[in-house]
Design goal:
By secondary structure, this protein is α/β, with parallel strands linked by helices. It contains 6 helices and 5 strands, in the order E-H-E-H-E-H-E-H-E-H-H. The protein binds 5-O-phosphono-beta-D-ribofuranose (RP5).
Length: about 170
Amino acid sequence: MKAPKVAILMGSDSDLPVAQKAVETLSEFEIPCEVRVMSAHRSPEKVWEFAVNARADGFAVIIAIAGGAAHLAGVVSSATTLPVIGVPVATSVAGGLDSLLSTSQMPGGVPVLTVGSNSGGPTNAAVAAARILALADEHLAARLDAYRAALAQSVDVKDAKIVAHFAKPRD
Ligand code: RP5
């Protein structure tokens, strides 16, 4: 059986810097992904066709990245039963509040699991996708344990530096 893939959909190629972070995190976990551009407004037929066929095409999780009137994740979720993770792209409107609300405020029964529009958003989308896949993959679950331990260690390193800094004798 082929490894399940994660789809990373962007509403526009201007979302690429955000998508790139999700791609990097997925590759840390060696999770195969496919990155595509399709727009809920500019190419709705393409979005629908992709979402309707996504499960049969071997995708297990869909990450949808869009900004402004960010309806991509919601439209995808309406056409599939796969888990859909929405990444709102930061905009000039209150830091991306438009994207956040239009991604997250879905009607009951059509979920979009929404991450933040901050720099951690795309990373968290990828880690969340890894956690979903790890439900049926012990090796991936072990990688997630190691990832979590590495996060804690990175905080310890920062803590040690700060402690050393303030322990210096002052003039
Ligand atoms: C959304 O509109 C895209 O996801 C992007 O975040 C935003 C702007 O798109 P472009 O005008 O840069 O193509 O659909």
